[in-house]
Amino acid sequence: EQVDVLLAGGTVITMDTRRNLITDGAVAIRGNDIVAVGPLKELSARFQPAETVHCEHDLILPGLVNTHSHAPMSLLRGLADDLRLDVWLHGYILPVERAFVTPEFCFLGATLACAEMLRGGTTCFADMYYYEEEVAWAAAEAGMRGICGETVMKFPTPDALTYEESLQYVADFVGRWKGHELIVAAPAPHSLYMCTAEILQQTTALAREHDVPQLIHVSETADEVEAWLEQTNMRPTRWLEEMGVLDSKVTAAHCVHVNSEEIHILAERGTGVAHNPTSNLKLASGIAPVAEMLATGVAVGVGTDGAASNNDLNMFEEVRLAALLPKGVTRSPVVVPAQEAVAMATIYGARALHLDHLIGSLEPGKRADIITVSTERLHNLPHYETTG
Questions:
Q1: Cβ distance 52 to 258 under 8 Å?
Q2: Per residue in 94-115, is it b (16+ CB within 10 Å) or e — as a string?
């Protein structure tokens, strides 16, 4: 049987439901799809590859999924450090964006971000910015998979004077990219405090009509939650459910300050959560209750957020923090074990973006979004294996 590529040897970390690990394994690829995953012996006998890639000293993993980013903000890296979120956002970021964000800014910034993400093993990212079609072009040219969310706000933005303009942009954008192999165009209402109920109803209707995700920031800071409670007598997630927003495929970024009731709502409604540990630490927003979310069955992915609120787009760093922070907070070294942390960067991340039917694990029929990680670098030596 003919295949295009055989990734041969190495340890295959499938991230399938059984979390199978195959030592001396192989992955057969035809076109964009995974045809077979199994022991090298078996696959060598079965397939005639046009190209064999030797992975003897590598781990073979699903490509990492960055569930929340603002790719063009790579051009704002290190611009405003050591500041409170409200000062950072209103005092620095928004004024700079108003002055400098153009289609070219977004294309160049996204191209830089894609290069950085690819070098770090990220093959898919969810984005939320302005002139989002430029981000889509940059991602498609880089060969990356992107959920590209056009930001909608009640205030004028760099690419729209009114929210009606933004909504029109989203509708056109979603229509143009429908059915694209790599890109899903989506509405991205910024947050509850930057939108109105009417805006959220319209973005939800649009997301449902086109069956695309909807990206939004939720409960990032304690102040945001307090203000919303005062205004509506409801916590943000509860309010989103009441408004029908969670009837669409939502990916909620941050969710740092959600309580148990809200976590149950997120799990029941199949709402994805993008956990951004570095950004939440840098802006002192807090530490999201990730262990409880995972235990309740919420699809929690990991994200870098923008380079301005992180300073890099390194998913391995996010995975490390996603595993370590809950241990420190709960004082239990067994919460969020390594396998769960890797799942957050792969299969759970795919589920959080409503893409787990396509990516996130190495299984026949899924897309061949695959990375290899060398085990022979100094920081990965020596290796210990458990013998059962």
A1: no
A2: eebbeeebeeebbbbbbbbbbe
